[in-house]
Specification:
By secondary structure, the protein is mainly β. It contains 3 helices and 85 strands. About 5% of the residues lie in helices and about 50% in strands. The strands form 10 sheets. It has a 33-stranded mixed β-sheet that branches. It has a 15-stranded mixed β-sheet that branches. Strands 70, 71, 72, 73, 74, 75 and 76 form a 7-stranded antiparallel β-sheet that branches.
């Protein structure tokens, strides 16, 4: 491999021989005067300059000290256990201008200030220096005369080595050849790393890693390959760890072959020249698999990171830091990033950032392929950024339906596009599309090659899809399959999806309006919508799979002239409402289910004479927007609806603004446990709808509250309520809130079971006199429950909502509209989920802008915004900090 390899082996044999003949008792030698190493007159066994000596000189196992003013010449190959040069001002150990001399130090070498260990002749000589442990250099270690006069430095042995000190270094070749790769060479001084390479060298790399772990642990920059080299190899028995500083490898070439382990824990490893081409190729050559691991710092390859010959396995792991790929001016003609689908390969991405600046110059190669069934995958976080800031490119990733990619971001110059490489469905944690850029679900750029994209997590804990550019859905499908709450964001302020599947038990939250144009599949998880962030179902859209585990909690708007069942519910209750077919395909109706009493907003005591009682547990709103069609309305019930025991006397009731009107019973389905009822004829009046009964003895529905009151005493509050009938009533929880959003149980009271008699209940709640609100939670024997209305003391009331824009913020100002609320002399509170108040301000305007910096959000998450007006009315909403 190198012309001096024979001399290296000869020196190593000499070292082994001298170790065998090592003296039993180690001796410490001090320089007596200047002289030759293997001359007894040069040494004292007492102290510096002392003549005492038994006629010996240092050999294996001995400690050597060279004092100030003394120069010791190595006239032949020598061995010692430790070497200390200089006492603080001078002292020299010098290689000669003859022979080929090897010095072997089995311990540490210390070069003190003013001292030197050097070769300073021009006689075409190659010498060697073996050291097994440390070099502490505060003087001069100069092992390079010119390109044919130098001393090779070899770190060997079954021991760890450290290089430290503030001295200067010059050398031609440093070799790490430890007994195994578990032993380290830890370089802690910048001077060692930044020592200039030989100016005229055209063949040898400056650092030769044979066996062991090399740790770059100092600031500074070093080049590990001369300009003419085309490649560099990290052997199987080597770990290269970069903690600090920067190592530039193959600066004049294009390929780093990794058969060992590259470990980036804080510094920078830069591979190749700015032209770029091959980059890092992992090559499996034996029992140990090649590895790349990044925990901090940066691994930069001007080319790619791939498999040698496309067939070598490797272990790739990133938990932090950066992987920077394919930024070279010529771009790689291979894979920018590829984990070969070979048994034994691993792809572990738990954090960090991967930047793929440019695509391959080979059109048939995708830019990112992390292998399939033969590769072990563990992807829980991490971001992959496609594109650079200068040129718009099209990138392809290899899709896999069963393996999840990290968070993807289409991040390059405007016009950058990312798409699947082939017509296969794929999964990723989340997707972000930057302004002017495009994500195309179609591999071939047309409807026929549209694919399904599953988003399994959320960007920064919130957004599954963050779109500031263009999401080309074509006839593809988005699947939300995460286990954390997922949100959408669109720069346009609304979202349109062709096909959407929800399979996320943690729920989907709409922070802007969303429209479905072809199909909505509800598999698992709830979609949370609001009047502002409305879910719209376009004409001819199919909705399937709605159940108690997957529905829409909030309003749903349907456009079209076909019959439709609204997949609505609240909490854990799925309670659909249906309409018959309107006349025009432009007609629209919006429905929402409320699992709470209609009272007091819709007084259940105000009803048509044909109705005996209205349910006190639930209701729907169904409102007509565009059009003038009349439709039949079908309501549903479940075990949570109360006691339904006589279907013929069940009725559909509709609130006309003054009272509940009887819309009759046009037919029922199901059983008394679960079923539906349709009104007698199409209706032209809309608004709240509820179940009711024409019989006073049948269909008692839920517990009927005839009264619920809270009165304030001097140091406690009295909560009282009256029921006129109860059905399977187990108990009541009395819940209290001080901010209108967070409730806690203050008392539990047993119910009367099933009864048609009047029952009176009362509890006392000791408080600090602050304004609070109460509600009742009535729980049946089977665990179903419902809430009463809210009652407050101190004039406090709970009413309506305030409007906040945006509902998810990062650095934006918060805009709060109080609409028709009288906000004069009001106070605004922002609290976290634990109830801790983080912001209070006085409000005197119906439209307020609050700067994010004023609030001081301590962390990302959901916060409650509460307004208490001058007349003690509470208005509330929530906001998400991302």
């Amino acid at each position: 491999m190198r012309t001096n390899s024979l001399m290296y082996r000869t020196a190593l044999l000499l070292y082994l021989f001298l170790s065998l003949v090592k003296e039993t008792d180690a001796t410490t030698y001090y320089s007596r005067t200047s002289g030759v190493w293997n001359n007894a007159s040069s040494w004292s066994t007492i102290t510096y300059g002392d003549p005492t000596n038994a006629g010996t000189f240092p050999v294996s196992g001995d400690m050597v000290f060279i004092g100030d003013g003394h120069t010791i010449l190595l006239a032949s190959s020598s061995v010692c256990a430790g070497l200390n040069i200089g006492q603080g001002t001078s002292g020299i150990l010098e290689y000669p201008n003859f022979g080929s001399i090897t010095l072997t130090v089995s311990g540490a070498i210390t070069i003190n200030s003013g001292a030197k260990l050097w070769y300073n002749f021009n006689t075409t000589r190659t010498h060697n220096l073996f050291v097994s442990t440390d070099i502490i250099n505060n003087g001069i270690l100069d092992l390079y005369g010119d390109n044919n006069d130098f001393v090779n430095l070899i770190f060997n042995g079954a021991a760890n080595s450290n290089v430290s000190g503030s001295g200067t270094f010059a050398f031609n070749l440093v070799t790490m050849s430890k007994a195994t790769r578990s032993y380290t060479l830890n370089v802690q001084t910048t001077a060692f790393l930044s020592a200039a390479p030989p100016a005229t060298s055209t063949v040898l790399p400056r650092i030769d890693l044979t066996k062991g772990t090399f740790v770059c642990n100092a600031l500074g920059t070093t080049n590990w390959c001369d300009p003419a080299a085309t490649s560099y190899t990290i052997p199987m028995d080597v770990i290269l760890e970069v903690r600090l500083g920067q190592i530039n490898m193959v600066t004049g070439g294009d390929t780093l072959i990794n058969s060992g382990k590259i470990y980036i824990t804080g510094g920078t490893l830069e591979v190749g020249s700015p032209a770029g081409k091959k980059g890092i190729l992992n090559r499996d050559v034996g029992a140990l698999d090649p590895e790349i691991e990044i925990t901090a710092g940066t691994l930069k390859s001007y080319g790619g990171l791939a498999s040698y010959a496309g067939t070598s396995n490797c272990v790739f792991k990133i938990t932090g830091g950066n992987l920077d790929l394919n930024s070279g001016t010529t771009r790689t003609d291979g894979y920018p990033l590829c984990i070969a689908n070979v048994s034994g390969s691993q792809c572990i991405i738990l954090g960090g950032n991967i930047y793929i600046h440019k695509p391959s110059t080979t059109a048939s190669i995708p830019e990112f392929d992390f292998g399939s069934s033969n590769v072990y995958h563990n992807i829980t976080d991490g971001h992959v950024y496609f594109g650079d800031a200068f040129t718009a490119y099209t990138f392809d990733y290899m899709p896999y339906v069963s393996y999840t990619y990290p968070n993807f971001e289409v991040a390059g110059a405007a016009g950058t596009t990312l798409k699947p490489y082939t017509f296969i469905n794929s999964r990723m944690l989340s997707l972000k599309i930057n302004i002017g850029n495009t994500f195309d679900v179609a591999s071939g750029g047309n409807n026929a090659t549209s694919t399904q994209i599953s988003l399994t997590n959320a960007l920064d804990g919130f957004y599954a899809l963050y779109n500031e550019g263009t999401f080309l859905e074509r006839t593809g499908q988005i699947m939300l399959t995460g286990t954390v709450p997922q949100y959408y964001y669109s720069l346009a302020g609304e979202y349109t999806l062709y096909n959407l599947t929800v399979n996320n038990s943690a729920g989907i939250f709409l922070d802007m309006p969303m429209t479905i144009t072809n199909s909505l599949t509800l598999t698992n998880g709830i979609i949370y919508s609001t009047a502002t962030n409305l879910l719209t179902i376009n004409k001819n859209v199919t909705v399937t799979g709605a159940s108690s585990s997957s529905f829409v909690d909030g309003p749903v708007k349907k456009i079209g002239n076909t019959a439709f069942t609204y997949p609505v519910g609240k909490g854990s209750e799925y309670r659909p409402v249906s309409i018959s077919a309107p006349v025009l395909d432009t007609d629209d109706y919006t429905a929402e289910f409320f699992f709470t009493t209609p009272a007091p907003a819709y007084d259940t005591s105000s009803k048509a004479v044909s109705l005996d009682h209205i349910t006190d547990v639930e209701y729907w709103t169904l409102n007509r927007g565009a059009g003038a069609s009349t439709v039949n309305v079908t309501l549903s019930w479940s075990g949570a609806s109360g006691a339904i025991d006589d279907l013929p006397t069940l009725r559909v009731a509709q609130w006309d603004g003054v009272m509940w009107q009887d819309q009759g019973n046009g037919g029922t389905s199901g059983t008394t446990t679960a079923g539906t009822i349709v009104n007698s004829s199409p209706t032209s009046t809309f608004g709240p709808f509820a179940l009711s009964s024409s019989s006073g003895t049948n269909n008692p529905l839920p517990v009927e509250l005839s009264a619920f009151n809270v009165t304030e005493e001097s140091d406690y509050n009295v909560v009282s309520w009256i029921t006129s009938s109860e059905k399977n009533n187990d108990y009541f929880d009395v819940e209290r809130t001080s901010n209108g959003t967070d409730y806690r149980v203050v008392a539990t009271v047993d119910g009367a079971g099933t009864s048609s008699s009047t029952h009176n209940y009362q509890i006392s709640d000791v408080t600090d006199g602050s304004n609070v609100c109460y509600r009742l939670k009535q729980v049946d024997n089977d665990g179903n429950f419902n809430y009463s209305g809210v009652k407050c003391v101190g004039g406090l009331q709970h009413n309506g909502s305030i409007t906040i824009r945006p509902t998810a913020i990062h650095d934006e100002d918060i805009i709060i509209d109080f609409n028709d609320v009288d906000s004069k002399n009001a106070k605004l509170y922002i609290t976290d989920l634990s109830g801790r108040t983080i912001y209070i301000t006085d409000v005197n305007d119906s439209h307020n802008i609050i700067h994010n910096s004023e609030i001081g959000f301590s962390s990302k998450g959901i916060y409650h915004v509460t307004l208490i007006t001058g007349d003690n009315v509470i208005h509330s909403n929530r906001i998400v900090v991302i």
